[in-house]
Amino acid sequence: MCWSATADLVAGAGIAAVGVAAVTLAARHPRDLPLATLPLLLGVHQIIEAAVWHNDGGTGPATLAWAVIALPLLAWWVPVAVLCAAPPSARRRLLVPLAAGVATAAALAYALATRTVTAEIRGHTVGYSLGLPHAGLIVVGYLIATIGSLLLSGDRGLVLFGVLIAVGAAVSVVLWRQEYVSTWCAFAAVCSVVLLIRVSSRRPPASRSPARPGS
To answer: Which of 8, 31, 83, 181 is surrounded by the most beta carbons within 10 Å?
Structure first.
């Protein structure tokens, strides 16, 4: 995230609290739980980046943990969570971003296992470098998996979230080209409050009336 370790820590704690609230509310709808967990995961992600700031970047455990969440985990988690939460009518078309997410996550996991990810403090931003082969193709797969699954979800709240993070991705590339991964993740974390609103607006499933004797 931009600015400082303190900003990451405060933002991360606040977003994680939103995630806890979303998970609690989503207990009424188990299919929403993977998606409701996303703000909690993104909040923890920002807290981990506070540790990256504290260590002045480098290649330590905090940098690796940040990259594991940002790269393979989110590429897989988002399309799976959207597939679980989406209406039945949208599930067939969501298989495309799911396949893209699985393939992209596999490529990113292999890259992290065979290469060293490095974080560098650049003023008020953090830049991460992994030296990905075929980086353009991997970026396209990542965007299809994450933004694509949200836009194809057929759910108004998820489509809104997808539009917001798509705008965030574009702004991050324009303003922080070398640090766009960090800034985009921070933007997505803030926007994940939309998921709490979506979960809180969902009505609990109607309970069935107990059968009466003789009915």
So the answer is: 8
The residue type found at 172 is: S
Q: What is the pTM of this model?
A: 0.85
Exposed (0-12), middle (13-18) or buried (19+): which is 180, by Cβ within 10 Å?
A: buried
- Copy the structure tokens of residue 180: 């766009």
Residue type, 75: A
Please answer whether residues 179 and 125 qualify as being in contact, where contact means their C-beta atoms are separated by less than 8 angstroms: yes
Condensed to tens digits (0 to 9), the pLDDT of residues 41-80 reads 988 998 999 999 999 989 999 999 999 999 999 999 999 9
Backbone angles phi, psi at 6, to 5 degrees: -65, -40
Provide the β-strand partners of residue 24.
Answer: none
Query: How many whole angstroms separate alpha carbon 144 and alpha carbon 35?
Result: 17
Average pLDDT over residues 116-142: 87
pLDDT tier, 14 (very low <50, low <70, confident <90, very high otherwise):
confident
| Mean pLDDT confidence for 79-87 | 94
Closest C-alpha among 8, 16, 22, 42 to residue 194: 22
| Alpha-helical segments (H) within 176-215 | 180-191, 193-201
